[in-house]
Fold these 2 entries.
Entry 1:
Amino acid sequence: RRLLIDGGPAAHARNIAGKRLSRAPLPVGMVAELTYRCPLSCGRCSNPVEASRREIGTAAWLARLTQARDLGVLQVHFSGGEPVLRPDLPELVAHARGLGMYTNLITSGIGLTARRLSGFDHVQLSVQHAAETAADAIAGLRSHHRKIAAAALVREAGLPLTVNVVLHAGNVDAVEEIAAFAAGLGASRLELAHTQYYGWGLRNRAAIMPTAAQIHHADEAAARVHGRYDMEIVYVRPDHHTGRPKPCMNGWASRQFAIDPSGTVLPCLAAAQLPGPSPEGSLAEIWFDSELFNRFRGTAWMPDPCRGCDLRELDFGGCRCQAFQLTGDAAATDPVCSLSPHHQDLVPAGGPRPAVIPRRYR
Ligand code: SF4
Ligand code: FES
């Protein structure tokens, strides 16, 4: 690919950003959230509850892709919502590919066709459950059989397939069945990730958060299926239960950024909720110079106990958006950390569950 020939991302950043290189790391990945529209209604969705319906057009996406490549970005993750709903997806993917970038499709599989797969290097297919009735109930649509067909399309195209299953109270007891199902789909990788409580997932937290006993059983089931199939299995334990925060985005504005459907450039998928103006300008200006991208970069912003903690370079104080959602202060230590002064305020799952509110955005 071109980036290996012409000196790689560091050379690009020196060319376009000059002395800025010494002040900030370079981004490797970009998440292109093409649309929030989606045929499914999963209550665990991390998309914002109050989402703008505005979508930028093809020319704006093409320009951002070119800027991203110039900034050094190597991987583009086309996501949503459901990105295949955008008619210009093939054009955007071809452009990214022509720039030498690795292209990943993150999809529900609904609406996927062989043409829509053209130009992609990898596909990540979301699956709700191994059992059809349960899967369709979670998705709010008869979709399970269409996902099986989508997986077959990916295999026929010769592309590597990752099956992604977001775990919550509605499917967490079926980890072994889900692993068998993913192996049957021909996945080379299975990601079992507990729900991140943003957007609709946060709104439905009381309805979908597994109990401590359910998580314990899921941990054990994940350990049992590990190595059982010719498939990599990645199981991510939930930070709400481990007392250890996740190194969200591998550190704020450190490796990746996202662009939402309205064209707003963000350090992570949930950052639009944080107070302050949206960054403006070219991607290089936003990445290196914007207040938002510099707000939590590095470790100087950290409060106690992170400031003096040996783990601050490993987890970066956790997730800024989660800290904001749970404390009202995006600069606070992530409350899922057992050392956070807010940790004891976290409410564990238990008691009667309210009904899941389906995500509504079509
Ligand atoms: Fe991470 Fe901060 Fe907790 Fe230390 S105190 S483990 S740096 S979140
Ligand atoms: Fe925004 Fe974690 S989702 S920092």
Entry 2:
Amino acid sequence: KTKGFIFDLDGVIVDTAKYHFLAWKNLANSLGFDFTETQNEQLKGVSRVESLKKILAWGETTVSDEKFQDLMALKNTEYLEYINKMNNSEILPDVPRVLDYLIAKNQGVSLGSASKNARVILEKVNLLNKFKTIVDGNDVTKAKPDPEVFLNAAKSLNINPEDCVVFEDSVAGVQAANTANMISIGIGSKDVLHEADYVFNDFTEISDAFVEALITK
Ligand code: B16
Ligand code: MG
């Protein structure tokens, strides 16, 4: 049977949260306030627009619509400087093993990310060719926890949502997968991702046998 396996990007395939952090922190500092790692955690899976809204609120700062757009562009320019230096050494452990296993078993493999930079990141780490389809921040109107991104990914694979599995590191992403009626696999801590059907710290804990069971289930 062919099932759909949808991967989130940031926090699942690569750890780009650290680059988002550096770029947002510089932006916040330039506006005269600080931005902490704890706050950065709360931006996981959150779109760029919503992230900036939250950061400005934390800094008790309001800006004009025009300035808001400028700030978004500024942040992304700096973020892309970090992204452009990425290579395949930044792929999280055992992600390629699981991807290759799924491909060898002729499963549908798709990306479902909130990032508008998803393609360039996959290109940088040399994983673009592993994905049959890519649904990213340029293709959706509603952010996670809305299931739109994963439902679009299922559609792009021509596979029913009930036959899809989602790998996610964010609470909003797990909720989106659950709402879409997909199997949710949390990548991270059990305490945070308790709404997921399964939780693993990382892909080294996901055996081929477990993946095989998901395929045949
Ligand atoms: P960009 P994911 C999300 O990616 C990140 O987790 C989140 O921190 C970021 O703000 C969002 O992408 C938008 O990214 O600025 O590149 O469009 O986890 O859904 O792959
Ligand atoms: Mg993520």
